[in-house]
Write a structure and sequence with these properties.
With about 1150 residues, this protein is mainly beta.
């Protein structure tokens, strides 16, 4: 026989026909290994249908009558009735093995052999090896089956096998259909097994033919191991209405290495199931994966490791029997991408006995009543009766009691006194013996608890009795004694008493009535009495406010009746009970006066600013024995005239109390001192108190009221001071310069007259011409936030001595409060600073500065107060269109006096920084008062040189006239211009010859040997300047004293001495003549003898020259480059 993965089908003892079916991968949507079947996808439903058709085909084929390989006849000795066609098929999905065989269908030598089948038996064996006559004794016995039960109807057609021929195993209708036995395997089995069927006849003799009655090929019987929880149990709590399901997880008892994954993608999860019947291996695969609340069986899906689940059963669940089971979801356990479910329920992971769940409370008890019977010894018994509920069985009746009515057994003060089992009678009852000393009302209620322990904490009013008064306190008095009442005045009454005995922790209440009320009247109408106060045990008195409960105006006197009751706990665990017997001794009458006196009417007030006093007056109250109190409020107590205000409101303070009321007169006055230097609005109120200390504390506003608004003013007016300049802009500095100013003040209140102002200097000189009256410029009467404004004009001239000034302003308000304001923080400085510049000298004096020499800025600044700053700037090329105005810069080289009134300065500037021409230097000085002074000097910078004729020529004062620009024509060779050109060319040639002669003549003069350094100074000698020229001599600006003949020493020091010497000097005329530079320099040095390191060639203004003179201009440029080496 051949082995297959899915199973096998044996068709005969010798030759077999097999139908193989491939084991399909299990997924979460297929029945597999006895698993549950959830909703199927389209693809899996198609796959499922294919598998179903295959299985059905297998069973159809197995039911077909199969003969031997040739004719399907019996095998073995038919007289020994061997089992025929033994086939064993293992179903891996359900983990069962099905063994089938049939009876013989032909007789051998014994025609009565079919009758013997009635008494024959078949014994089924299982073994791990092929079974034969030798090892069958070692094989595992499986089952014993009757060969042909005479009284059986196995085929469903014959009523019995009374006809022996019907026991033939032909498989035809009317004959025996054959035998089938199914073996359900345990979890975790594995191996290859063989099956055999042994025949036992009526005598007990056993016969086994391996060739006819056994399987020749083993079948693989492998079952899945257990992967499910263990020992599922459930317990229902009727109090909470919850069922707790518990289990032992597989991993808790698994061997090392055998645990299932509890984390990651392969982590298991837990399914909790709820069914109405026990779940077994047979029906476990039919569990519905839909949630229980949606009609399925799945109650919850839990995380790994959970071993308990608490389930709250739905409301109104009644007498439900529930079965709980637990399984695992195992992703990728047997097949990747498939969730494996072990629903074989082989580990006690399903409840086989259901649990009763019931959260529907039974119906309420009715017909509850309670009655009390007291005894002479002070004890008593209360009997409670109710009607039992015939619809319940094994119920319990709970009796609850409280001092007041209640609707829930969990209410405070409610306690249970008895649990009474059902009697089966129509009524149940309970007798409750009260402890001695019990006193009070009691309400009894009865609650039913059904056999499941279910009850309702809510109490129906029909389940309660009416209040019953229980009195086991007969030997003591339940009221206080010795009651005394007294009116204290001030609207207060005091009631005192002696505490009762026989109780502890009692509370005493004082009640008031308009007459002596009886206990019966009070019980019938509780509003006849009003509780005035409540105090604990041991106080024994109560003081309270007296109120009038009547209608209309309060009478002058009130007659009040007072009673005192007590409330105590008179029994164990009993609520407090107030005894209201109102015995005649528990009563006192008090006469009370709570009528408030009439309010006063305030009239007027007087303020004396000189004496700093306030006099209030009001109409005299008609309370000869009373007193008056004066109150004050410095805030705004009456913000809403529609509201009611009292003297106890925040902000009111007592000024004076217990002011006696005079016996006669229309008005009463009160004089009080005012605080000095205050200016405020205050409210005053007058309150009258009678001899019983009654007073009306309500306040009124307006005419005829008991309040008065008073403007308390003992402070002179304040002012806001501003000093404005002539542009009406506020002056921010304290130093005032000359100009027109305006002093402007704003008074803090209205004044009696205009303010007076007096301004004096520090020397006592009057600046304002004495005391002057300021002018009103704005009354601001319609602006409550501003006061009147006044102004005074102040003119500061340069004639006013510098120094501090004193401004004194005096004001008087309408209450004759005067005040003087002094301002001494201003000073006057009306004089500008004075500036003198000693150098440079003004060009108007004929002085000039040679180009290349330094220009010294020397001068001084003086001020009558103090100098603040000094700056200087230059205006280059003064008086020309090319002028450049430099920015102001601070003067350096300052020497300051100690009082900072005199500054001297000296600064140097290189004249080479200035082009030759006129320039202006300006010095600005500012003093601390802001007075500003500027002083300017125009000076000349020029470039001078000696001419051949001995005259000094300066570039700026007498410049060489520029040659007009040549106009070029284009005539023909025969035109007159060309004729002129030929003539000019001849003249030019002659000029060149003359120029050469002049140069040779100049070079023939006596020479003086010079050093190399001196040879470069021919230009300086040519110009006729030296390193230190005499500026006065050159510029011809010396004073008269300087024009006198000077000494020989001074002549020797004059750098411009050579300027006045008449010496012959030559200068180059044409650039075309080539002359050696060194020789030419030597010649110049011999002729002039000046040092070229001293004089710099000036920057010349550009000017247009004719084309013929362009070589000469290049030569000048060459000299400029040579002479600026020092720079």
């Amino acid at each position: 026989m051949m082995k297959s993965e899915g199973g096998q089908f044996w068709t005969g003892p010798r030759k077999s026909i097999f139908i193989y079916f491939q084991r399909q991968p299990l997924n979460q949507y297929m029945k597999s290994d006895g698993m549950m079947k959830p909703d199927l996808s389209r693809e899996n439903r198609r796959h499922h249908r294919s598998s179903t058709i295959l299985v059905l085909l297998m069973f159809i084929i197995s039911a077909m009558p199969i003969s031997s390989a040739s004719d399907g006849s019996d095998h073995g000795n038919q007289d020994l009735m061997p089992a025929q066609d033994v086939v064993a098929i293992f179903d891996s999905a359900n983990e069962v093995t099905t063994i089938t065989w049939r009876n013989i269908k032909t007789a051998n030598t014994n025609p009565e052999i079919f009758e013997e089948l009635w008494d024959a038996k078949y014994h089924v064996y299982r073994y791990s090896e092929p079974i034969n006559e030798t090892n069958i004794a070692s094989a595992d016995f499986v089952k014993t089956v009757l060969a042909c039960d005479k009284d059986s109807d196995d085929d469903g057609i014959n009523e019995s096998y009374l006809n022996a021929f019907d026991c033939k195993g032909t498989g035809e209708v009317g004959d025996h259909p054959g035998h089938t036995h199914v073996i359900q395997h345990l979890a975790g089995e594995t191996g290859e097994f063989y099956y055999a069927v042994q025949t036992e006849n009526r005598t007990g003799a056993k016969y086994f033919d391996p060739a006819a009655s056994s399987t020749t090929d083993g079948i693989d019987e492998t079952t899945s191991p257990l992967r499910s929880p263990f020992r599922v149990a459930a317990e229902y709590n009727p109090i909470s209405g919850q069922t707790t399901i518990s289990w032992i997880n597989y991993n808790d008892i698994a061997l090392p290495g055998a645990a299932i994954n509890h984390s990651g993608l392969d982590a298991y999860s837990i399914n909790v199931w709820l069914t109405t019947e026990a779940v077994t291996r047979e029906n476990g695969k039919d569990l519905d994966f839909n949630l229980y609340e949606n009609g399925g069986d799945l109650l919850a899906e839990l995380s790994p490791g959970t071993n308990e689940y608490v389930y709250t059963i739905p409301p109104s669940t009644s007498n439900r029997v529930s079965y709980y089971s637990v399984t695992y979801n195992l992703p990728n356990f047997s097949t990747p991408g498939v969730v494996y479910h072990d629903t074989r329920f082989l580990s006690n992971n399903s409840m086989q006995d259901g649990i009763s769940e019931d959260n529907t409370p039974p119906t309420h008890v009715t017909g509850v009543s309670a009655s009390f019977q007291g005894f002479s010894n002070g004890t008593g018994t209360t009997t409670i009766e109710w009607e039992e509920n015939p619809s319940e069985s094994n119920e319990v009746y709970q009796v609850w009691v409280s001092a007041t009515s209640f609707n829930n057994t969990s209410n405070q003060g409610v306690r249970k006194i008895a649990d009474v089992l059902e009697t089966g009678n129509a009524k149940g009852y309970e007798s409750y013996d009260l402890p001695i000393g019990t006193l009070g009302d009691a309400v009894y209620c009865v609650v039913i608890v059904d056999q499941y322990g279910q009850s309702d904490t809510e109490v129906n009013p029909q389940s309660c009795s009416t209040p019953v008064q229980e009195n086991a306190f007969a030997n003591w008095v339940a009221e206080p004694t010795n009651i005394v009442g007294e009116y204290l005045g001030d609207g207060k009454t005091r009631i005192s008493w002696t505490d009762q005995i026989g109780a502890e922790g009692e509370t005493y209440m004082v009640w008031r009535a308009n007459y002596q009320v009886s206990a019966g009247e009070w019980q019938a109408q509780e509003d006849l009495m009003t509780m005035k106060c409540q105090v604990p045990d041991g106080v024994q008195e109560c003081i309270f406010d007296v109120t009038y409960d009547g209608i209309g105006v309060v009478p002058p006197q009130i007659t009040s009746h007072y009673f005192v009751t007590s409330k105590a706990r008179y029994g164990l665990n009993m609520a407090e009970f107030e005894y209201r017997g109102l015995s005649p001794d528990n009563h006192v009458v008090v006469i009370e006066d709570i009528k408030s006196p009439n309010k006063v009417i305030m009239s007027n007030f007087q303020i004396s600013s000189q004496d700093k006093t306030l006099e209030l007056s009001w109409q005299r109250p008609q309370e000869p024995q009373g007193t008056v109190s004066v109150y004050r409020n410095l805030g705004t107590p009456f913000t809403d005239l529609n509201s009611v205000y009292y003297i106890d409101d925040p902000g009111w303070e007592l000024v004076e109390s217990d002011i006696a009321i005079p016996s006669d007169g229309v008005y009463q006055t009160y004089m009080m001192d005012l605080e000095d230097a205050v200016q405020r609005v205050a409210w005053y109120a007058v309150i009258v108190t009678d001899e019983y200390n009654n007073s009306d504390t309500e306040l009124y506003v307006g005419t005829g009221s008991n309040t008065q608004e008073v403007n308390e003013d003992t402070l002179g007016p304040d002012i806001t001071f501003r000093l404005l300049d002539e542009d009406n802009v506020k002056v921010e500095t304290n130093s005032l310069t000359k100009g027109d100013y305006t002093i402007r003040v704003e008074a803090s209140e209205n004044l009696a007259t205009e303010p007076m102002i007096n301004i004096t200097s520090s020397s006592g000189e009057s600046i304002s011409a004495g005391i002057q009256r300021m002018a009103l410029v704005a009354s601001n009467a319609e602006n409550p936030d501003k006061g009147p404004e006044y102004a005074f004009s102040l003119d500061i001239t340069a004639s006013i001595d510098a120094g501090n000034i004193r401004i004194e302003i005096s004001l008087d308000d309408v209450y004759d409060n005067g005040r003087i304001h002094l301002f001494e923080n201003f000073s006057i400085d009306g004089q500008d600073p004075k500036i003198v510049i000693y150098s440079p000298s003004s060009s108007s004096e004929g002085s000039k500065y040679l180009y290349g020499n330094d220009i010294k800025l020397v001068g001084g600044i003086t001020d009558d107060v103090e100098i603040a700053s000094a700056k200087v700037k230059f205006l280059r090329n003064y008086g020309t269109s090319n002028s450049v105005n430099e920015p102001w810069r601070n003067i350096t080289g300052l020497v300051k006096s100690e009082d900072n009134r005199e500054w001297a300065f000296e600064m140097e500037y290189a004249s080479g920084n200035f082009e030759y021409g006129s320039h202006q230097v300006t010095v600005r000085a500012i003093d601390v008062a802001g007075n500003e002074k500027e002083y300017s000097v125009v000076f000349v910078v020029d470039w001078c040189r000696h001419r051949e004729d001995g005259i000094t020529v300066c570039e700026y004062e007498n410049p060489v006239a520029e040659v007009p620009e040549t106009i070029y024509l284009e005539p023909s060779y025969s035109d007159a211009p060309y004729t002129i050109v030929w003539a000019v060319s001849g003249v030019s040639l002659f000029s060149i010859i003359v120029a050469v002669i002049v140069i040779i003549t100049a070079m023939s003069a006596p020479k003086k040997k010079k050093t190399d350094e001196e040879e470069d100074n021919w230009m300086s000698e040519f110009i006729g300047t030296s390193a230190e020229p005499d500026m006065d001599s050159i510029t011809n600006t010396q004073s008269k004293e300087q024009s006198k003949p000077a000494s020989n020493d001074e002549d020797e020091d004059d750098p411009f001495d050579t300027v006045n010497k008449l010496e012959r000097k030559t200068r180059p005329k044409k650039q075309e003549i080539v002359v050696d530079d060194d020789d030419e320099d030597d010649d110049d040095d011999d002729d002039f003898g000046f040092d070229d390191d001293v004089v710099e060639t000036p920057k010349k203004r550009p000017r247009k020259r004719p084309a013929a003179r362009k070589p000469a201009s290049r030569k000048v440029a060459k000299r400029k480059a040579v002479k600026r080496d020092d720079d």
